[in-house]
Each structure stands twice: as structure tokens, then as C-alpha cells.
Amino acid sequence: MSRNLESPVQTQMAVSALDRAFANSRSETRVGRWKRLFVQTDTGCVLDVELDRGDNVHTVKRKLQVALNFPTEESSLTLGDHVLKNDLSSIRNDSPLLLTKTFMHRSSSTPCMSPTGNDLQQQRDRGCPIELLVCPSRCSRTRPLVKDVAKAIRKGVDPVPVNSGLGGAYYFRNSKGENAAIVKPNDEEPFAPNNPKGFIGKSLGQPGLKRSVRVGETGYREVAAYLLDHHNSANVPPTILVKISHPVFHINEGVCANKNVGEGGTQAVSKIASLQQFIPHDFDASDHGTSSFPVSAVHRIGILDIRIFNTDRHAGNLLVRKQTGAGNFGNQTELIPIDHGLCLPECLEDPYFEWIHWPQASVPFSEDELEYIANLDPVKDADMLRMELPMIREASLRVLILSTIFLKEATAFGLCLAEIGEMMSREFTGMEDQPSELEFVCMEARRLATEQDDSSTEHDSADEDLTQFELDSEDHEIPKEPSAHQFEFKRQHSRNQLSKLDEADEEEEEDDIEVESNAGKLACPKPVNKWLANISKLSTSLKGVSLTDKTSRQLSAGPKVVDSVKTSKSNSNDTGSQLCNWGSANDMLPPSVSFVKLADMGAETWGLFLEKFQELLPEAFRMRKCSMTVQRAKQRLGTSCQF
């Protein structure tokens, strides 16, 4: 139910009381400070909160209750997928938390915690205008940049708003007045409360421009893309997450209290934003022919795009810089990929790869590139992002793991970059979209994993008493993703299938015999022959179905798309339950044209899904190769018939 909100004067008095409460807590023992967090409301306002060791979620929310006059049970402190219940010990210092009103009516008039109290303002003025958030261990390349920009801000060098694009962005300059960084506040993204270009209407955490990427979370993905670009292979500019304060930032009327005007003029507005090093360049890829682009640069950017499942790699976010100086001959260029805010979606979508039809994408990978791909460890990458960016959602990490496995297996089979991108991309027939080849494999893998998981559940129910005894006698632990060692074993097993197809068929026959001897109850898949039939059935079942129909029907080989969040297991120890039971944030993800969702699988089903997925890939790759061979033969035949 909605509540009658206080008047602006009452809200301002409440905010001042809140600031004094936190300022007094800070002044009691700054030396003994335990940790500091940044709390952001769903309307974008940011509050710096310093905690003592005795503080927990309830003590913080009680201060909010007194200051803002709304019941504690009507608010939730969240970090990515996780709703914080009480203990704050596991939350890293300088983490950004989101305060959401669980039962209050969400609107732009929701009161916000804009730090305006005198005590807090003095403290903020003594601090740095730019502060690094999370992942400080990987910020060595950006620290000099941050210091230079902060120095320029203190000297009065004003940033310049960027007019292009749908979201708010600003060029921050260095002490010399040169563009040094581009800053994108998360509350000025498209549809966010403080978007300066009129694209508003949603709160932070709700579905955004892409429904699988939430409002306010594109900046996290910008940082994730940089962190995943190992050894700067794709040339992603250094990118970090910051809390930054400056009067230039935009606040829409009615969203938050007006900027305070003091003796020194307009006070700074604090934002949580991504900060990326500005790279001088000559033009972007849309202004230049692609023939001069190095094959290696296109390959390395494509490798990154596949890993992060980029849904927005267009020519405008590929910067081009001419190579000059000794040793550079001809029309040589350097590519710089930017704008990765729409990567790592929470479910499989239709990616967009500008490079997919470039001739460089059809050139086989080099030995160095194959070695780079072979050394990728998706589980290790996911663990790294959990550590460095704890606000990244598990569903996005599952997409990362899935797409990286797909890349590794595809290159091991001998596919080129263009072929891999085509297998990930959907085709449109008339006004209808068809699942990509990757999505077909995922739907079948999910069906097989679900069948085996259900069979295992029935088998385990006979041992319920023993299982209960074991659970009572040991501590409960949250299931984790498959370990790097387990993944490596499965990957090698899959490669053996690729190199020894006849042996795989023999093993399959042995599995059939074993299944029959087990009374036919254990669902053991036949990944090669059985898969072909199911793909044919899936292709037929999707014909004549509109886009809206696809989101409301259950595919024979896949999960329900609508309300798939509600189908997760109730087991509190399942990773899937952590993703889907914690409240409104995941429930806000509406139905979309998504044939495969990964978030609603429990940890055990997810592990089975990855296993079945890898078993199905060799046949999918063979089908791709055969179809390409037939297509080329038809093209040659058609050409010869013209003469």
C-alpha cells in the first residue's frame, strides 16, 4: 500500500536529523571505525555511512526509521541478489548498498537521503571528491587518473556534459583542462530517476533499457568488462566504480531535495558512477572502412564480446585510433572497445556483434589466441567478480560461465569467430524471432538436467531418514558453483568426445544398457541421436508463434519463460533459491523474449545443466559445419550455373 509522504520541509528536517545521527556516530570514534558503506536509495541519493563493530542492519535501519518516519519493515538493504538480514560482517568496506521500500508505493516523490546536514557536509568537504568503491586491489592503473581528476576538481576545472547518448555522462578533465575520464552516474541511466534527457519512469533495480539489465547496474558491467579483459587483451580502457561529488550532476525536479546553496555557492551532489579513462581517438568504426582493422584486434574484441555475451557491440562503441610513428606503415589502426553496460545480461538474449560479417571474423584464430582462450577459466572469473564486484548478480555470472564454456568448446572444435557469433545470434523469420543454435542446445540441456534431477530426487526420497540424520549432524553450507577442477575435468571429457566420436557412440550404447538395467527410472540422456530429434521438434513447435505467445508458453525442451522465478526449489541451501526468494528485485524482472533462463536453477540442477550442455555441443558444432559446407556447395553450384 502507498503512504502519504511528508512535505518537502518535513523531509528536509528528517534528512538533517539523519545526517546528525550518522555524523554523531562518526565523531564518537573515528579512529575505531569498523567499516564504511554507501547507502543509495532507489531514487539515486547517496549517503556515506560509517559503522562501528556493534552496528548491524537493524541499527542502521532504526536510524533511518527515526529520520525518515517510515517503518523499518517497509525497507530492505540489498547488495546485488542478497537482502541483508542483520549481520554486516561479510559486507566489504566501501560497498554500495541499495535501500528499497518493499511495501511503499514507488514514485519519484519518495523521500531520499541526500546528505545536507552541516556536520556531514563539513566532513565531506574535507574528503576527496572521488572515492574508489570495492575492487581496490585491481585499481593500480586508475589511481593516478583519479588523483589527477580530483586535483582538477579542487582547482575548479569543471567537467563537460556529454550531449550524445540516452543517459547522463560527463567528461571530467585533468589539471591541464584535457579530457581525462568519462563518468556515468548510475541514477542518470536511461529510465533512471535522474536521467537528464527525459528518459525516466523507473526506480533503481527495476528492468531497464534491456529487460535483463536493471536500471542502475550498467556501471557495474562496465567495470566487469575491464576486469575480465585479462592482460588487456581486447584493449578495454581502465574502468572503476566510484563515489564522486560535483555540482554538475543532474537532479530531476521532485526526485530529491534541491542542491544546497551556501556561502561558497552550489554544493556538490554525490553520485555512484563508473569512471573510465578517456582514450584520445580519431573516429569510431562507423566512420571508417573495416578493411584496415587488424585481424588480431577484431578477434580479441570478439573473444571478449562472446565471453560477456555483449548485447550492444555496434560500430559506435568501437573507437579507432590511427597508428603513427616509426615501424607503422600504411593505413594501420588501433581499436578501443567501450560502452559495455549492456553485457552480462541476467538471461540469454539476442546478442549484437557488429564484427560478425567483417572478413576478419572469418579468419581462423591464431595460435596465441587459441592459447589465450584455452587458458580462460570461467569459474575462476566468476569467483573473481564475486569478490571484486559483490553487487553483480548470480544470474549474470551464470551467463558468463555458459558463454565462456561455449567459446572454449567451439574453438577447440575448430570454429572461427564468425561461426561462433552466428550460433549465438537469433534469426528473425517475418516478425518472429527464432531461438539461436546456442539457445536450442541450452533448452535441450535444461530438459535433460531437469529429468535427471527429478529422477535423483525420487531416488533420494527413499533415503529420507538417513539424509535428515546427516543434515542434522553437520553444518549447513550454501552450495557453490562447480569448482575449477570439476570444470576442467568436464572440459577434457568433452574434448575426448570431439576427438573420439566412435568411442563416444560406443559409450552411449553402454549407457543405454545400464539405464535399462536400472528399471528405466534414472533419466540418463542420449546426447547425440536423441538431441537431433528434439531440435527438430523444437523448430516445428516455434513456427507460427508470435513474440508475445512465446513468452507465455512452455517449450517442450525448456522451462517456462513467464514466472520462471517462481519455479525455483524451496530448498534454502540452493543457489537458485538465493536468487529468487529474496523479494521484489528479482520479481521485478518481467517476461521478455527469453527462451532460456538460468537464475531459477538450483545449484545441483545448474551443475547437471552444464554437464549436459557440454555433452550436446559436439553434435551442434558438427551440424554447423555440415550446414556451412552445404551452403558453400550451393553457392558454388549457383555461380557455375550462371555461365
Automatic annotation (TrEMBL):
GO molecular function, one term: 1-phosphatidylinositol 4-kinase activity
Transferase found in the keyword field: yes
E.C. number(s) listed in UniProt: 2.7.1.67
Residues covered by region (Disordered): 473-518
Compositionally biased residues, Acidic residues: 503-515
Assigned protein family: Belongs to the PI3/PI4-kinase family. Type II PI4K subfamily.
Name of the protein: 1-phosphatidylinositol 4-kinase
Species in which this protein is naturally found: Urochloa decumbens
